[in-house]
Amino acid sequence: MLKYLLLIVLFFPVSVFAAKKECGVKPSYNITISKESVHIFNKKNDLTITQNGRVILNEKLVTLNPSLQKELIQFQHVLRQQLPLLELQSVNLLTEVKEAFEKVIKNQLSDDNELKGELNKLYKRLVQLLHTAIITENGYTRFSYQNFNNLKKDGEDIGQRIFYNVVGGSILHFNFFKNLAAIKQISKNEWKAQKPKLKAFDAHICSVITDIDKQYTLILTQLNNQFTSK
Questions:
Q1: What letter does residue 130 receive in the DSSP assignment?
Q2: Angle at 138 between CA 40 and CA 146, to 5 degrees
Q3: Which of 66, 140, 151, 158 could serve as a FRET partner for 49 with CA atoms 20 to 30 Å apart?
Q4: Hey, how many other C-beta atoms are within 10 angstroms of the C-beta on 208?
Q5: What angle do CA 45, 49, 28 make, to 5 degrees?
Q6: How far apart are CA 82 and CA 206, in angstroms?
Q7: Separation between Cα atoms, residue 29 and residue 87, nearest integer Å
Q8: Residue 200 contacts residue 15 (beta carbons within 8 Å)
Q9: CA–CA dist 17, 11 (Å, integer)
Q10: Where are the beta strands (DSSP E) in 85-213?
Q11: Which tens digit of pLDDT belongs to each residue from 207-226?
Q12: Where are the alpha helices (DSSP H) in the chain?
């Protein structure tokens, strides 16, 4: 019977951070955006695009033809716009889902403070987890590809830890057996209500990351070709 509580406690990481169908593209580079530049890097390549249009690839200044320079200006604009927006949209969705569950808990479980407290704890930890992958603060946007690619697994781990804490320490405070039917119905109804929105957001994230990756791969190929043609 505990599986019904598990459905609620694991709802955020399972549905918000992970599509049922994995995105075909997984980034393999970090991105740091400041007022002065966009920096994209991993162990293999290190690309800096400055605000005034200078391009440095693997510590070498690159002279661009007009067409490629235009591409890089546009790519820089996309990153500056899309990554902070993706972070904001993700936090907003987490907040929206949390508030939807709080409303149902209030209506159906007499505003169960213990359950609300665990959901708030989960929400805060998942926002913190999100911000290890993508965050904008103090004029900088940072994207960590390893943390981004691990959001599903790490989110599930957080949910499971909170679940076991609930079961081990305070399950009686939830009036669990008394509220079993209501908890089961919350899980069923809220998943049904939230599923279309969550699936659409999963697809949106995948689309943004796929577009960024395609543009970056093409630009990197063109920049390397300029070096080899000299």
A1: H
A2: 40
A3: 151
A4: 17
A5: 35
A6: 12
A7: 17
A8: no
A9: 10
A10: 134-137, 140-143
A11: 999 999 999 999 999 998 87
A12: 2-9, 11-16, 66-108, 113-133, 145-149, 151-165, 180-229
- At 3, which amino acid appears? K
- Phi and psi dihedrals of 36, rounded to 5? -85, -30
DSSP 77: H
Question: Tokens 């005034």 identify what position?
Answer: 52
| 208 closest CA partner among 137, 132, 134, 129 | 134
Could you report the per-residue pLDDT of 114-124, keeping only the tens digit for each?
A: 667 777 887 88
Instruction: Quote the CA–CA distance of 218 and 221 in Å, as a whole number.
Output: 5
Q: Are the C-beta atoms of residues 57 and 226 closer than 8 Å to each other? A: no
Kindly give, in sequence order, each residue whose CB lies less than 8 Å from that of residue 10, ignoring residues fewer than 6 positions away: 156, 159, 160, 163
Separation CA 13–CA 109 (nearest Å): 23
**Residue indicated by tokens 């943390």:** 147
What pTM was computed for the model?
Answer: 0.83
Amino acid in the structure at residue 128? Q
Look at strands 60-62 and 134-137 and give their pairing. unpaired
